[in-house]
Every structure is written in structure tokens, then in C-alpha cells.
Amino acid sequence: MSIQILHACKELIEDAKKSCADLVFKEFCLDILSKACNILNDMEFNQLVVFASELIENKNILEYQPKITVKG
User: Fold this and answer.
1) Model pTM greater than 0.90?
2) Which of 6, 24, 58, 68 is the most exposed place for a label (fewest CB within 10 A)?
3) First to last CA, the chain
4) What would the mean pLDDT of 13-32 be, rounded to a whole number?
């Protein structure tokens, strides 16, 4: 069950990264982490912290966005 919660938290954080301003995203991450620490075990929580930290530092590329060219 906690693995599913970990994946859900990661998805929430990724979605927030895509759609929120930087300051709002950081606040959202802190809120998710504060709630997740009570639910996840230590290893899973540490994974979530690393995941959120990478996104905050923009080290993780969320999507591949190829350039589309139109030939006409």
C-alpha cells in the first residue's frame, strides 16, 4: 500500500511542477513531504525527498518534447 502512496505522491509533485509557479511548487512539495513522513516508511520517504529535491533543483527532465516540423 505504501508503494502506491509513494507513486501517487510522485505524480502529484510532477503535476505541480508542470503547472505551478516556482514558489507555489516548493510550498506544495513541503506540504506533501510533511504529510508523507507520517505514512511512508523511512526508505520510501527518503526516495520521495530525493525526487522532490531533484525537481526543485530542475535536475529532472519531466517530459520529452520533440520539435515538430511541418513540411509543406
Assistant:
1) no
2) 68
3) 52
4) 92
